[in-house]
Structures are given as C-alpha cells and as structure tokens.
Target: L-2,4-diaminobutyrate decarboxylase
Amino acid sequence: MGDGAVTEQYRQALEVAHRHAAGWLDTLADRPIRPEVDVDGVRARLDGVLPEEGRDPVAVVEELAAASADGLMAMGSPRFYGFVIGGTYPAALAADWLVTAWDQNTGSRQPTPATAAVEEVAATWLLDLLGLPAESGVGFVTGGTMANFSCLVAARDAVLRRAGADPAAGIQAGPALRFLAGDAVHTSMVLAGRLAGLGAPRTVGADDQGRIDVAGLERALGAATGPAIVALQAGDVHSGAFDDFAAAVAVAHRAGAWVHVDGAFGLWAAASPRLQHLVRGMADADSWATDAHKTLNVPYDCGVAIVRDEPAMTAALGAHAAYLPSVESISDPYDRTPELSRRARGVPVWAALRSLGRQGVARLVDGLTDAATALAAGFAGIPGLEVLNDVPFTQVCLAAPDDGATAALGDWLRAEGTVWASSSTWRGRTVVRFAVSNHGTDAEAVRRTVDVVARGAAALGIGER
Model:
C-alpha cells in the first residue's frame, strides 16, 4: 500500500470519528445523562473471538461508535454533577485531537520542542493565574491522585534530606516520617500517601465543614519530632470548604514540616478576585496539586503537580540514562512527572487558557460558584429537603429528613436521567451531592435541575413525611 493510500485511510477514519464525535456533542444538552446499556450489554456487542484478519479502519470506527453509543454517560452535560468532572471547552478539545494526531512523546525538550514549549508556556501561565511562585516546577500528570503522589514524593525526599538521610537508600533507611491531615482528607490523598510509602495520614481533626483543626495540627506536630509532611485541602469534596491556610501553613512551617495543598478543584478559586479570600495564605505552602479536567474544563486526562522547589521535584522524580536526550541545567518534562512516556497533556491547558484569558477563567470560576449558590437556594425551597453545607464554592449536599428517603431520591434522579448527582455519606448522614464543574451549567440548567429534584421529592412523598 502506497503512502497516499495510507494517508487516505487516516483521513477517512478521522472523518467518521469526527461525524460521531460531533453527533455526540450535539446531544449533550438534552440527552438523558445515564447510560442506557450496562457494561455487559456493550461487551456483548464487542467481545467476540479475536478475528484472524483485520477490518477496514472506517468499519472499525463505525463498529466502535455503534456498540458504545448508548453505553456512554453524558459527563459533558451541564446537568452532570457527579465526581467533580468538568465539561470541555472547544479549543481544549480540538487541541487534544491535535495532540493525538501529532503523537509526540513529551518526555524530553530536545526531540519534542513544540509540545514541550507549549507546556512550558501553559505552566508559566498557570503559576501566574493561581498566584503561585514563578520558580515552581510544574508537571502534567494523569489526574489528582498522581498530582498528589508526585508532590508527596518530592516532599518525602526533601524532608528526608533535611534530616540528613539519603532518599536513594529508601524510606526504610531514614528516620520515621510523619504524615498529617485533617479528618476530611480526600481518598486520593490517602492513596497517594500509601503509594509514596508514607502510609495513610494521621488525622488531626476538622470542623463541621471539613476544615482542618489547626489547634489539633499544632498539638500533633508538637507531640513528636522528626520529618513531617502536612496535607491541607482547597475545596472539601462535600462542603467545598477551604482550610485556613494562613494559620495552618504557619503552624506547620514552625515545626519544620513540608506543606502540600490538595486543590483538585478548589485551587482555581485563586483565579477569581471575588474568591481569592478562600485561599489566603495558600501560596505559602510548598507544593500544590490540581486537576485541569475539573474546574478548567479540559479533556481527560490532565492533573497538575506543582512544587515550589523545582530542584527538589526533579531530584525526586527525574530519570536519567545514557540514551535519554537532555539539555544541561534545564529540566525536562520527565523530570517533573513519574512518567518517561506520556502524551502532551499540557497542550489543551494552554488552549483553554489562551481561549479564555485571565478574565475568562475568573468568569468561569465565578459562574460555577454562582450556579452552586443558585442550586442551594432552589433546593431550600423544596418541602422536605435541606442543604447541609455552607456552599462557599461549588459543592451542594442535599438531604431529606431520613437517610432512606435521601438514598431513594438519589436513585430516582439517576434513573430519571435529567441530572446525575452522586450519593454519599457526610457528617453521619446520607446525602445527594451536586458538584458544579461544567462551564455550561447556566441559569436554565439550574432551573431544570431544581425542577427535577422537586418532582423527585414529590414522587417519593418526601415533603409529606
């Protein structure tokens, strides 16, 4: 097959993919959010015997699209409120398609100068936008868990060095490490701590909205000596609350601890002049983690790991071998992530920031917060329902008078399909949690959401109990 025929195969397959992708996007505003077919249903269409001979690429794409169509969750819908998942801006989506077509292994600056440069600009813009130290190292990883993990590995090695230990010898050869967090620490931070060899964090208390108990943190740090890492939180996954960074960072630094901030969705409050009070003192920490595919609304996957001391980051995460190209005194992308091989995740971040600008990002963050506030106000007017959290940011936790009714409401909403909100347990009660993360969640989406919740409550007789 000649080069022209190969190129034509790519073109035809991409045209079919474009048609199906555009058709999918056209349906997001109004389609039921729930999948219509479960995993077994989709597998039944695809899971035959591996054929001896292949098929034409166009036929393969058509088969995939047809088999998957009604097994897809409309996560890009403006009424999808589960798992803190944002939508996707057009420029970011298109940039992500280019990233796939370019197929650059963005580990090193030398062989992939274009994507490395775009990521470096995106990193500079992010630090500026979020008010973080300009000299910080930035790594583009898969998501919040790996962003937390990357930062904790840098933290682990740095505090071991401060204690006179050699991180290359392993944590078992150094002094005991203390890992502390508030009671509302997110599960991704717990997992990241385990992966980094720190174990699950010792929790030091929290208030009723999930903010770390600063006095409890001070007591815990003062109860022992040795290297310590403190995990703080920008945006509680249930309440949206932010830790008191100014006080907690000061306490931790007085004790010589490294401070890491898990800001998977809440770090973006720093981009809004109206909301910057929520993150006062946050920039004084030592590392930060966030997800661009949450609040910034870029495609999966794109977590961001940020470490104030870039040399500490590259010392902990950097990989070196004779065959790997490098430039003396300049860190490579693979020095700031746990991966040698990866796609250019930072390119869609650049595209989103370039298309929005500073004011556009601020409007995005403010709009998400306004939508959450409007949802809470609307829910408060529904008989029998109660909003349990203070709603400072983008999370709303809704409950009926008893856990059984709340669970039933969550099930009813997900089956009805107009919205998708996750059920959870918070402060000893079952809740239905609405995480506002999509740039398309406007006044009409809020109206439809409040309406369907009211219909669900009425159908279940919640207001009559």
Observations:
- The chain has a mean pLDDT of 96.
- The radius of gyration is 24 Å.
- Residues 346-380 form the longest helix (35 residues).
